[in-house]
Automatic annotation (TrEMBL):
Keywords: GTP-binding, Nucleotide-binding, Repeat, Ribosome biogenesis
GO biological process, one term: ribosome biogenesis
Pfam family, one: MMR_HSR1
UniProt protein name: GTPase Der
Record domain EngA-type G: where: 196-372
GO molecular function (one): ribosome binding
Chain's role: GTPase that plays an essential role in the late steps of ribosome biogenesis.
Record organism: Leptospira saintgironsiae
UniProt record similarity statement: Belongs to the TRAFAC class TrmE-Era-EngA-EngB-Septin-like GTPase superfamily. EngA (Der) GTPase family.
Superkingdom of the organism of origin: Bacteria
Length: 458
């Protein structure tokens, strides 16, 4: 019998009177902690369970006393000891700072979290409280100069950016639950013993089952020249270069139609769910048939789900009269059909002849590793501001676009939230420029990038 899974703990810490209890109550949406405008009101550690199904969150939130009691009398020393014991048990720390006042104790406490062996392994999200207005978000430079990597401007009393705080918690919490983890009967969710899950998708008869069999070394799936032989998702686990990978060969994706057979429609839905539950996807293409409308729909589905994927062109051995320029010319034809493919890695192979299968798996493992990339808020803001300055007015509307603050909230897709002066000022060509820069600097080829703009003005 397996033991019950431990609920992660998030502790709110900081010196006295920065608004910890106000934030605690705001996140719980009820008043449990005492909040008054004088230091030292919270003497004990308060804990409460937070359930947020929308973001897949289930954690215990702890409100700690102010950690700056300078003269430790007997009671105060016990309070501090209890608070630091609570912090040491945390899975994530929300470190609260005051926009209008940074004290020497703030710096000393930050230094303690960096150097204390009991604390320096715990992820820390630094929240600058009392950022009550959008223009206040431009006053964060002093906090970046303190070397803080994750900074989030909030207003606990005004509930400003609290939904974003929950998004960041879901992003940073190592044991955060993710959506799409509940599966229907017959589906196999990825387990902690696997490094990642891989789905093989494509049109019927593109060679998906042949590829799965080549990877397994035996006939795991039925192979036939009849399109649609695989009616269901077939999965197996393989070990490659020390990585344990669950691989699923999905039913061939066809055009969804009200007149489609019930079995085909069921297979289509199972394929969609397999994509949703996978970490990485190989989109298999028949080299002889090329990239068609159905393939565009598959790419659209992968983009919508935010799944990292690469394009594997199967049956390359069947292409006649190949020369040194054949692959380059084939790529250019793909790009002309669908320009988005320029942002995707492409490899040719032959599943039947087991050619370049090893190289494809090396690329897949690399893609899985790159898809977990987390960039600190301070680095993102530095990069984005530099790129905005580089773009100048060339990509802008009549009025210059201005980014106030940005932060990452998911890895797959690589999702950034940008707080800006006006959404309408950020034209599509500027957003494409930013995506291109992100892809180049952070090696995100094959990983969907989402830029979400937020502003008090639409």
């Amino acid at each position: 019998m397996s033991s019950k899974k431990r609920v992660p703990i998030i502790s709110i810490v900081g010196r006295q009177n920065v608004g910890k209890s106000t934030l605690f109550n705001a996140l719980l949406k009820k008043k449990l902690a005492i909040t008054e405008d004088y230091p030292g009101v919270t003497r004990d550690v308060l804990r409460a369970r937070v359930l947020n199904p929308e973001r897949g969150l289930d954690f215990i939130l702890a409100d700690t006393p102010g950690l700056d009691i300078e003269r430790p009398e007997s009671l105060e020393e016990a309070v501090l000891e209890n608070a630091f014991r609570q912090v040491a048990e945390s899975d994530l720390v929300v470190f609260l700072l005051d926009l209008h006042e940074v004290t020497s104790y703030d710096s000393r406490l930050i230094d303690k979290f960096r150097k204390d062996p009991e604390l320096n392994q715990i992820p820390v999200l630094y929240c600058v409280n009392k950022v009550d207005h959008p223009e206040d978000e431009e006053d964060l430079d002093s906090f970046y100069k303190m070397g803080l990597s994750e900074i989030l401007p909030i207003s606990a009393i005004g509930r400003r950016n609290l939904p974003l705080l929950l998004e960041k918690i879901a992003f940073l919490l190592p044991t955060a639950k993710r959506k799409n983890q509940t599966t229907e009967e017959g589906e196999t969710p990825s387990t902690s013993t696997e490094d990642f899950s891989l789905a093989i998708v494509g049109k019927p008869n593109a060679g998906k089952s042949s590829l799965l069999n080549a990877l397994c070394g035996y006939d795991r799936a039925v192979v036939s020249e009849v399109a649609g032989t695989t009616r269901d998702s077939v999965d197996t686990t393989v070990t490659f270069d020390g990585k344990k990978i669950r691989i699923t060969d999905t039913a061939g994706i066809r055009r969804k139609s009200d007149k489609a057979e019930a079995l085909e429609f069921y297979s289509y839905q199972r394929t969609k769910r397999t994509i949703e539950n996978s970490d990485v996807v190989i989109h298999l293409l028949d080299a002889l048939k090329g990239f068609g409308e159905f393939d565009k729909k598959i790419v659209g589905m992968l983009q919508e789900e935010g799944k990292p994927f690469l394009l594997a062109v199967n049956k390359w051995d069947a292409i006649e009269d190949k020369d040194n320029d054949s692959f380059k010319n084939y790529q250019e034809r793909l790009y002309s059909r669908f320009p988005l493919l320029r942002e995707i890695q492409i490899i040719t192979l032959s599943a039947k002849e087991k050619q370049r299968i090893h190289k494809m798996m090396e690329m897949t493992i690399d893609l899985a590793a790159r898809s977990k990339k987390k960039i600190s808020t301070s680095e993102l803001n530095q990069s984005l501001r530099a790129w905005m300055a580089e773009a100048g007015r060339s990509f802008s509307a009549n009025k210059p676009p201005k980014m106030l603050y940005c932060t990452q909230v998911s890895v797959s897709p690589f999702h950034l939230i940008l707080f800006v002066n006006h959404i309408d000022y950020f034209k599509s060509n500027l957003l494409a420029f930013i995506k291109k820069k992100l892809t180049e600097k952070y090696n995100l080829k094959g990983i969907p990038i989402r830029l979400e703009l937020r502003s008090d003005r639409k």
